[in-house]
Design goal:
4-stranded antiparallel sheet; 2 helices; mainly beta; Tachylectin-2, Chain A; disordered N terminus
Length: about 325
């Protein structure tokens, strides 16, 4: 018993809040190499060192989709405190998975959101990302889809099998009714993994995307800035913010104070990396060597939570099924 209680006590000592500013922690939702393994969570207090929760075991197993996968889990907390999650359910689905939770431990029945069922030729619905816009009280769901013949073709490799993605979206306020799916971002290249962060200091939104062109290969992350989510983002994107020395995907932007991090999956190297900006996205520094993630971490999303939420997750004992 002592071996179990000691690390928990140490963690809770670190989490003792002293001020309102310190009443924040950060979680990272991710999957592992086993795409059917389910939802994993890790936590951080500084945005650099991420520690697995639940002893590295999944909190939720997938039950929807052709392949019953739970890839690319994206979690966003609503104004009522409810956590909402979407994920990639299959390599070839025209749906995405959805579930909600009050505590990130006990989850609702999983559902399929039919985001591309109206497009019979759509090949996929990949890497959905959630973003909540407080002024409009609206959740945005963005994802990547290839519809053969719909957009100007780009040269692809044999491995890409003609994939030519664009970013689509729908919005909702209650996850019961959704606006019709529409095209959100078409930069003229194959684009996936769109993720948005609000820069409150400069009253703008930053969207990070992956240039997925494969011939010649790009496989890098770029940014674009907007002041109006409903109007979308300029398609004139930045230069790559990730080095040419590796391929990157699954960007997850997170502000920790005034520092903007973008975490990403260095998927060919089987590692997780990060870049950092100290000037609101104007310039970037690769800090991959100074961040640490649980072994096997794949494409996920970072988001802030209260210390109370984190303490409950640390205390959670799956054998008992409750905090």
């Amino acid at each position: 018993m002592r071996k179990i209680l000691l690390p928990i006590a140490m963690c809770l000592a670190l989490l003792s809040p002293a001020t309102e500013a310190q009443d924040r922690a950060f979680l990272f939702s991710y999957f592992t190499g086993q795409s059917t393994d389910g939802l994993h969570l890790a936590y951080s207090l500084d945005g650099r060192r991420w520690t697995p929760l639940n002893r590295g075991r999944p909190f939720l197993k997938p039950t929807v989709g052709k392949d019953k996968l739970m890839r690319d889990p994206s979690i966003c907390q609503g104004p009522d405190g409810t956590f909402h999650m979407v994920w990639t359910s299959s390599w070839t689905d025209r749906i995405i998975g959805y579930a909600s939770s009050a505590d990130l431990i006990h989850w609702s029945k999983q559902q399929a959101i039919p985001v591309m069922m109206h497009e019979p030729l759509a090949k996929n619905s990949w890497a959905p990302e959630l973003f909540y816009d407080a002024p409009s009280q609206t959740f945005y769901i963005l994802w990547a889809t290839t519809i053969p013949g719909r957009f100007e073709e780009v040269p692809t490799s044999e491995a890409e099998k003609g994939n030519n993605h664009r970013i689509f979206y729908t919005t909702t306020r209650d996850f019961k009714t959704f606006t019709p799916t529409r095209l959100y971002f078409d930069p003229g290249f194959s684009v996936i993994d769109a993720a948005i962060v609000r820069d409150t200091a400069q009253q703008k939104f930053i969207m990070v995307v992956k240039n997925e062109n494969s011939n010649p290969p790009e496989k890098n992350l770029r940014t674009t800035v907007s002041t109006d989510l409903a109007k979308g983002f300029p398609t004139d994107v930045s230069a790559p913010i990730t080095p040419k020395s590796y391929w990157a995907e699954g960007p997850s932007p997170l502000f920790v104070g005034d520092t903007l991090y973008v975490y990403f999956d260095k998927y060919r190297d089987h590692k997780y990396g990060a870049v950092r900006s100290l000037d609101h996205g104007a310039t970037w520094t690769d800090i991959s060597d100074s961040v640490s993630f649980p072994p096997g971490t794949r494409h996920g999303t970072a988001f802030p939570v209260t210390r109370e939420t984190l303490e409950r997750l640390i205390r959670y004992t799956p054998e008992a099924g409750k905090p």
